[in-house]
């Protein structure tokens, strides 16, 4: 089973990718993690990526595809994988298809976690964490039981991510929608696209994802 998971920052896509890995034995392929691993390993393509990133430039599609090719050739991907964070453009999707065609495989499912932007902004901008133990909270959805005190350790100091502002979050969402919109008809035409409610609870989303991953592909 080879799966692509789409979803904007903060929608829980990474959590679902990890659950798919744990529940279905599929390798979780995050482009950011793969880039860092390739650089750390010092492979030829990792060295190319490092030189590009050190220069402050974006890693070109050909290098990213090369890193993906290295990773999916490893034994852990024999049972399949879930791609998280790639492709982001139709050109990248076409390049990925060419790579998989050469390997005699293809993408079986593409899951789009559909979100309500206003609700997601409230979810992300309301996040905060205990400075002592790291326990996570949310102003609206998961406040501390006692005001100003961590439920877990009793700490009274909390931190927020500097980039969890409404302006930054809306800019990231706009960028995601702009990049992803052309990919949806691309994968819909292939008959592999599934849209799900990304605003549901983690357990509800997991149940739907499990159902999609478990479907037989009849075409």
Describe the structure.
This protein is an alpha/beta fold and 219 residues long. Helices cover 47% and strands 15% of the residues. A hairpin with a 5-residue loop joins strand 5 and strand 6. The two termini are 14 Å apart.
Radius of gyration over C-alpha positions, nearest whole angstrom: 19 Å
Principal-axes geometry comes out as: globular
Largest sheet: 5 strands, parallel
The helix/strand series, from N terminus to C terminus, equals EHEHHHEHEHEEEHHEH
Question: What spatial order of strands do you see in the largest sheet?
Answer: 2-3-1-4-8
Structural class: alpha/beta
- Percent of residues in helices comes to 40-55%
Per DSSP E runs of 2 or more residues, the count of β-strands stands at 8
Terminal Cα separation, in Å? 14 Å
Query: Beta-sheet strand percentage?
Result: 15-25%
What's the overall average pLDDT, rounded?
89
Low-confidence stretches: none
């Amino acid at each position: 089973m080879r799966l692509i998971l789409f979803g904007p920052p903060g929608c829980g896509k990474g959590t679902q990718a990890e659950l798919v890995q744990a529940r279905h034995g599929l390798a979780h392929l995050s482009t950011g993690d793969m880039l860092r691993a390739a650089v750390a390993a010092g492979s030829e393509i990792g060295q190319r990526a490092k030189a590009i990133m050190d220069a402050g430039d974006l890693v070109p599609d050909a290098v990213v595809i090369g890193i993906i090719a290295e990773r999916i050739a490893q034994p852990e991907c024999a049972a399949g994988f879930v791609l998280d964070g790639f492709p982001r453009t139709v050109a990248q999707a076409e390049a990925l298809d060419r790579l998989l065609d050469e390997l005699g495989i293809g993408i079986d499912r593409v899951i789009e976690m559909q979100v309500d932007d206003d609700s997601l902004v409230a979810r992300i901008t309301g996040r905060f964490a205990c400075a002592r133990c790291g326990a996570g909270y949310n102003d609206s959805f998961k406040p501390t039981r006692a005001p100003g005190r961590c439920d877990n350790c009793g700490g009274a100091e909390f931190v927020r991510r500097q980039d969890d502002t409404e302006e930054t979050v809306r800019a990231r969402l706009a960028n995601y929608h702009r990049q992803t919109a052309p990919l949806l008809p691309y994968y819909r035409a292939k008959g592999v696209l599934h849209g799900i409610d990304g605003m549901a609870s983690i357990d509800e989303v997991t149940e739907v994802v499990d159902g999609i991953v478990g479907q037989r592909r009849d075409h």
